[in-house]
Design goal:
Blueprint lengths: L1 E3 L1 E2 L2 E2 L4 E4 L4 E3 L9 E2 L5 E6 L6 E5 H9 L8 E4 L12 E4 L1 H10 L18 H10 L9 H8 L3 H8 L6
Antiparallel strand pairs: 1-4, 2-3, 4-5, 6-7, 7-8, 9-10
Helix pairs in contact: 4-5
């Protein structure tokens, strides 16, 4: 089924139609527009509404959702139910919050959170963690929680979690 394309709240129906499967067709030419895959794996398409100076790169899944799926709770993101970012069939899409989208991706193994030394912004490694646990002395001016946090450059709450084996188990 084809409908007038809506994207970011704008009706592009005078220029483009979009199908419930994710194809985009020019109204005047009747040709299906080529789509590319973004570095993050999503289909996108360059459209121009009224001239070359008005080019816009659109995310196909978002255009399908805005055109075909009601969003009564005003959810900001579109989730691919099967996890395939190139499957833009309306049956595979749903509106979601950021939290719902992340929970879905973790649940189905599409995103694997990293912890400990594998996390990109960690300042510590296993050796430093073991050293912290070995030298820590509660209330000590040199090896107490706050003193160690200043030495290492890590927040004292992070060290508290490490010392009490809540993180870096």
């Amino acid at each position: 089924m084809w409908k007038r394309m809506i994207y970011q709240g704008v009706d592009y129906g005078d220029y483009y139609l979009i199908s419930d499967r994710g194809d985009i067709k020019g109204v005047k030419s009747g040709r299906i527009r080529k789509q590319q895959i973004s570095p993050k794996g999503y289909c996108h398409c360059v459209i121009s509404a009224g001239g070359r100076s008005k080019k816009k790169c659109i995310r196909v899944h978002k255009a399908v959702a805005e055109t075909f799926i009601d969003n009564p709770h005003n959810k900001p993101e579109v989730n691919h139910k099967d996890g395939n970012k190139t499957n833009n069939d309306v049956k595979n899409l749903e509106w979601a919050t950021t939290k719902e989208n992340m929970e879905h991706s973790v649940k189905y193994g599409l995103f694997k959170p990293t912890y400990g030394s594998k996390h990109g912004s960690t300042k510590l490694n296993r050796d430093v963690v073991e050293w912290i646990r070995g030298v820590y002395k509660s209330g000590d001016k040199e090896f107490g929680l706050r003193a160690l946090s200043r030495k290492i450059g890590v927040d004292h709450s992070t060290l508290h979690s490490i010392i009490h084996h809540e993180t870096w188990c």
